[in-house]
Amino acid sequence: MGGFDQQNRVGSKFGGGGVAGHSATNADRRERLRRLALETIDLEKDPYFFKNHVGSFECRLCLTVHQNDGSYLAHTQGRKHQTNLSRRAAKEQREGKNIDRITNLPAGMIGQQIAVKKNLLKVGRPGYKITKCRDPVTRQQGLLFQLQYPEIGTEIHPRYRFMSAFEQKVEQPPDKDYQYLLVAAEPYETVGFKLQAREVDRTPGKFWTHYDKDTKEFFLQLFFKTEREQRYAGVPGLAPSIRK
Predict the structure, then answer these.
(1) pTM for the complete prediction?
(2) How far apart are CA 90 and CA 30, in angstroms?
(3) The sheet that has 159-164: what strands, in order across it?
(4) Which residue ranges are recorded for the region named Disordered (predicted)?
(5) Of 200, 58, 54, 209, which is closest to residue 146 (Cα–Cα)?
């Protein structure tokens, strides 16, 4: 196969093939798998391919993380991924489930809040930025999400929904320590963010959303309740002493 130098290896005669080391053999194998995958896989249509917010690539089927698309492509040709594909297909056939290729969740799970029009051509995932923040008074930890929708429809408004780990079927078994924030806006794919399973503070000023029609950006800010607030929520006389 091309792309791998067999000649100028230390310890071999010039012009000779030499003996490939273990690491070199693995590198050659990964490159051949990547080339094979490029001929058979369209990453834009791969329901298990996901680029996270730190730039790494994830396989939602095998729950693996890869530093580049070549590593992910080689992974898809490996035994683990192929075995999991067969198991998922057999399971879906047994249960008669219709999997939504947009969210990788059973069809209808998201509900009316994020309705998906099947006949609308998707244009990919929106660009996004996540900023960590902290309330200067209560010291609550928070996150600010900014999503860009340059090709969004004129009458479309981005919508969101929180989903528990037990509602989704992508990461199995469900991890109760996490929840998911889903954001949808046609004609873009629905995106999901994995968050800690902490209660969100819904008081005015702490949780808000805004859609700027001019810049076509959607903003969502949230703060998590402190441990004290979660522990004593609803208990008379034990409400948090700090309120804004």
Answers:
(1) 0.46
(2) 28
(3) 159-164, 178-184, 191-196
(4) 1-26
(5) 209
The pLDDT, as a whole number, for residue 219 is 96
Burial class (CB in 10 A: 0-12, 13-18, 19+), 192: buried
3-state secondary structure the chain: CCCCCCCCCCCCCCCCCCCCCHHHHHHHHHHHHHHHHHHHCCHHHCCCEEECCCCCEEECCCCEEECCHHHHHHHHCCHHHHHHHHHHHHHHHHHCCCEECCCCEECCCCCHHHCCCCCCCCCCCCEEEEEEEECCCCCCEEEEEEEECCCCCCCCCCEEEEEECCCCCCCCCCCCCEEEEEEECCCCCCEEEEEECCCECCCCCCCEEEEECCCCEEEEEEEECCHHHHHHCCCCCCCCCCCC
pLDDT digits (tens, 9 = 90+) for 134-183: 988 888 999 999 999 998 888 889 999 998 888 877 778 888 888 999 99
Nearest CA among 118, 88, 91 for reference residue 103: 118
Nearest by Cα to 211 from 192, 191, 185, 180: 185
What is the per-residue pLDDT for 53?
Answer: 73
Domains in the chain, please, with CATH? 28-93 (no CATH), 127-233 (2.60.40)
Residue 118: pLDDT over 50? no
**Per residue in 49-80, pLDDT tens?**
888 777 788 888 888 888 888 788 888 878 88
Q: How much is the pLDDT for 98?
A: 58
